[in-house]
Amino acid sequence: MAHDGTASPTGTGNTELVRVATSEHRLARYGLIATALTFVGLFLVLPLAAVFTEAMRNGPGEFLTVLSDPETFAAIKLTLLVAGIAVPLNLAFGIAAAWAIAKFEFKGKAFLTTLIDLPFSVSPVISGLVFVLLFGSHSLLGPWLQSHGIQILFAVPGIVLATVFVTFPFVARELIPLMQEQGTSDEEAALSLGASGWQTFWHVTLPNIKWGLLYGVLLCNARAMGEFGAVSVVSGHIRGLTNTMPLQVEILYNEYNFVAAFAVATLLALLALVTLVLKSLLEMKYSAQIAASRRH
Amino acid sequence: MEVRVQNIRKEFSRFPALNDVSLDIRSGELIALLGPSGSGKTTLLRLIAGLESPTEGTVYFGNEDASRKTVQERNIGFVFQHYALFRHMTVLDNVSFGLTIRPANRRPSKADIRKRALELLDLVQLTGLEKRYPAQLSGGQRQRVALARAMAVEPNVLLLDEPFGALDAQVRKELRRWLREIHDRTGHTTVFVTHDQDEALELADRVVVMSKGKIEQIGTPDEIYDTPNSPFVFGFIGQSNILPVRVENGQLWLDDRSIGVSAPGEADGPAQLYFRPHDVELLDGGGCIAGIVVQTRRVAGTRHVELDVGGANTTVEIELPPEKATSDRSRLAFRPTRWKLFRD
């Protein structure tokens, strides 16, 4: 998720004229461009196009019928529900963590920062297994949960927990450097003018971080909807109940129901494309804002 | 409002930033906290504001103990070194901020807030720029917006942290004069932090010289410049010369020569003689300090002459009228007219 929104592209219309002495031979240039394009085409565009054509193989009518299948429809609903819970939770957590880390000094700060990165460094399968170990029938909590009729594994709560865990760092990682760079003097200024803590956050801190925040939420959402590994471990694959879209794609594909599998995959691919477009737009806006804050 | 700081001590993780500092600020006064970096001047300012809390000691606003009050309750105006303007708000919104966030029962009407903000922008000579954003302003303009914003809440005391630190020399001088005018017109009790002695001496009613977390001297610019009470103040404010001398029977001796300066009542023994380059008179002989001219420089309206005096290869610099031409290696004799002795 490394992004360099601040590194501005330098290519303008005139550079070619200026750079004649250092530019490569025409053949070399075209050769390099062609190689790059071939790779992008083979490994990125072609597979994506294949997903769409497979889904539309039997025409748009069938495409829609497949999507309105009750089980598939349930998977879409579940995915939206899980993202709808996990993203706001991690939004709130991310702001709180970034606020604490960027604006205050306390013991164990470096440890907390490292901990936030943990979900990035472990395999999603392990993230799922953690919850099986915690809440499974052979765990310490298992019997207690069972006797109280609380179902966490192989149910929506487990899927939400696994998703929250995996998407934990996105918002916080995005905000910490931004807030650290902005420092605390804006907040102190607001306080000195009589603003309460909440007013300071609402009128000063939040506007200062809004683009970074949106960016983090966008990435968090994309991951929450697309997560496969961790969710697969805790979901139990109960049709129409605990299958999210990525799991549904796998099931349909394993049943040789290619059109249906690719139709659902299309939705996920569309989500990715929309995320990419929004991300690029935000990056443009966001880098301009960062530049403005540097000038300031 | 008068502000009293009493026996303040401030530690940052066991490191003392301020050590037993006491200061009385009179109502309507313009005070400069002057010192090198690390002297604790900004910490003292932030303690008065309530942005830091003292490890020990008390801050009084009038007769009220303000030490336990939050920064919001103290009702101060703080101008930050880099202004800390809210970048997503227009100039007008920045200036109005302190009033618009007040609870409904203390908040003026929208029209009144706007009127007050525009008046303040007029006061700081920014009329017509109210719709601009901070990024569209020059450094000096931002500084003035920050001041207007701080004054909008009718603060008990106005606190400025290095108000001219981030500006270029020309703008600094203009703003300095202008800040004095604003102060005289509005009468706010004002404290500002600076490391620039010219700024402090030119602008302030009284100057507080600080060093290593302590107050070295408090006084009017004249007192600070003419009668520094410690070697630090003498060295930090203006130019100074230091000569190792000896006191014998109330007379000062440099090496084996009497320099014709009497210090009645001073105990015998070694001491350091401090004097300013311009507080000297030239002599033809008798008791004096004699030196060989090493270098002369013409600086604006005076001639700076560097002299090698005494055997210890000590050099001093004195200022002479420009018409007093001297050539290198020539001998010059002088005597300080205003001086001070310090002992280790």
From TrEMBL, chain A:
Domain (ABC transmembrane type-1) ranges: 76-279
Stored Pfam families: BPD_transp_1
Subcellular location: Cell inner membrane
Endoplasmic reticulum as UniProt keyword: no
Chief location category: membrane
Keyword Metal-binding attributed: no
Ranges annotated as spanning the membrane: 30-53, 73-102, 114-136, 148-172, 258-278
Membrane topology: Multi-pass membrane protein
NCBIfam families: 3a0106s02, permease_CysW
Subunit details: The complex is composed of two ATP-binding proteins (CysA), two transmembrane proteins (CysT and CysW) and a solute-binding protein (CysP).
Protein name: Sulfate transport system permease protein CysW
Organism: Rhizobium giardinii
Taxonomic classification: Bacteria, Pseudomonadati, Pseudomonadota, Alphaproteobacteria, Hyphomicrobiales
TrEMBL record, chain B:
One Pfam family, short name: TOBE_3
Ranges where the ABC transporter domain occurs: 3-237
CDD domains: ABC_CysA_sulfate_importer
GO CC annotations, alphabetized: ATP-binding cassette (ABC) transporter complex
Keyword Translocase: yes
Keyword Transmembrane helix recorded: no
Superkingdom of origin: Bacteria
GO molecular function annotation: ABC-type sulfate transporter activity; ATP binding; ATP hydrolysis activity
UniProt keyword terms in alphabetical order: ATP-binding, Cell membrane, Membrane, Nucleotide-binding, Sulfate transport, Translocase, Transport
Sequence similarity: Belongs to the ABC transporter superfamily.
Protein name: Sulfate transport system ATP-binding protein
Species this chain originates from: Rhizobium giardinii
